[in-house]
Amino acid sequence: MKTAWYLGHKANDVGSCAILVGDPDRIERIGSLLEDPVYLPVKRGLKTVTGTYNRTRISVAAFGMGAPIATIVMHELADLGLQRFVRIGTAMHFPPARPGGFVISQSALSFEGTSQSYALSDAPPVADASLVANLQTAVSRNDAESTTGVFATFDAFYRDMFALDPAGGAKVTQTRQMLHDRGVLATDMETSALLTAGEALGVACATLCLGTVDGISQEKLAAEPLALGEKLMFSIALDAITMKEDLK
Length: 248
Ligand SMILES: O=P(O)(O)O[C@H]1O[C@H](CO)[C@@H](O)[C@H]1O
Ligand SMILES: O=c1cc[nH]c(=O)[nH]1
Hints:
By secondary structure, the protein is α/β, with parallel strands linked by helices. The protein has helices at 26-31, 67-79, 115-118, 129-141, 157-161, 166-181, 191-201, 223-241, and strands at 17-21, 35-39, 48-53, 56-62, 84-93, 102-111, 146-154, 184-188, 204-214. It is globular.
């Protein structure tokens, strides 16, 4: 049986679908919601837990930050046979999304470098329609609010999304205007690459993020609503990816 190069997992270590998270600290927190969680050996800081939720065997894998490593994790899991992926995490949000609300990817614009190696065409990648619908249903069932729309994905956090210095300030302002003109709802560092890789690999993918940074004011969500939002995000993602067709 083959072993994934960087993750180090075999097909029988993982479930039939996966939630991809950025922050490895989220693995224990989401793992506590699974039945019989098994924390797999960690290589290169890449943490994974496999367990059962809603009678479905599922893995949750943390990639860290950025498109190159996120696609490596997705690609290795797809190579082990996984067919459905939901990326969850945090994002900068733009109106009509509100701080602490959820944003769901319909499609994504790519301003990162990984997509081009996977792209099958010049068209922006589109999220899997059935996963998007499951996420929207799960948001309602969890009494939360969400907006579905276009994501934009970047590599250079402190040049494209958030300014730490005057040199970054001018570029971020220019980028923000472009995002407004193109009707972008949220920005992150992985979605366009994961949707593009998903299309190329023939697997379903969608993103659910908690809006934690206001794209206009650059104000960050406080720790308490962030922690509450993260908990809700775990439940929504688990409900959505394991939603049974006959029970919808
Ligand atoms: O909250 P997570 O999922 O880590 O994601 C977001 O936070 C990181 C820094 O912006 C990027 O990886 C971005 O996509
Ligand atoms: O501003 C933000 C917040 C979270 N994730 C991002 O990519 N950008």
